[in-house]
Design goal:
29% of the residues are buried. Helix 2 packs parallel to helix 3. The protein starts with a strand and ends with a helix. The C terminus is likely disordered. It has a 5-stranded parallel sheet with strand order 2-1-3-4-5, with helices on both faces. The chain has 6 helices and 5 strands. Bound molecules: manganese (II) ion.
Length: 134
Amino acid sequence: MIRILIIEDNLLNLELVTDLLEENGFIVYQARTAGEGVRVAQHILPDLILMDFGLPDMHGLEATAILKQSEITAHVPVIALTAHAMKGDERVALEAGCDGYFTKPIDTRTFVETLTQFLPNPQTQDTPLKSNAN
Ligand code: MN
């Protein structure tokens, strides 16, 4: 099962993304602050993190830097959730170590498919092993 951690303080957006992901079979963990998000990430080691920028305790990019500087979580993809109005946020996100970004409001028709592209792909990695076993 693929586990995704959403770090987002806006309850409506948090619930929207959670519903979308759960409908598509993902296991979802939620955090409403950066500090909580970092703690949960280190504890559960999710397959991917969705990171809001405007969080109550610190900017999402600061939290991303903490995650990327930690040996425990450095390999976990972090995808930014940036506000559509904030031109330049996308470039800033990638430069700061995010692996990708979504602009809010998210497009519910393409969100899950796009997110899947950011996931490590265990199917591809496992295929040769399964073929050898047959
Ligand atoms: Mn926010």
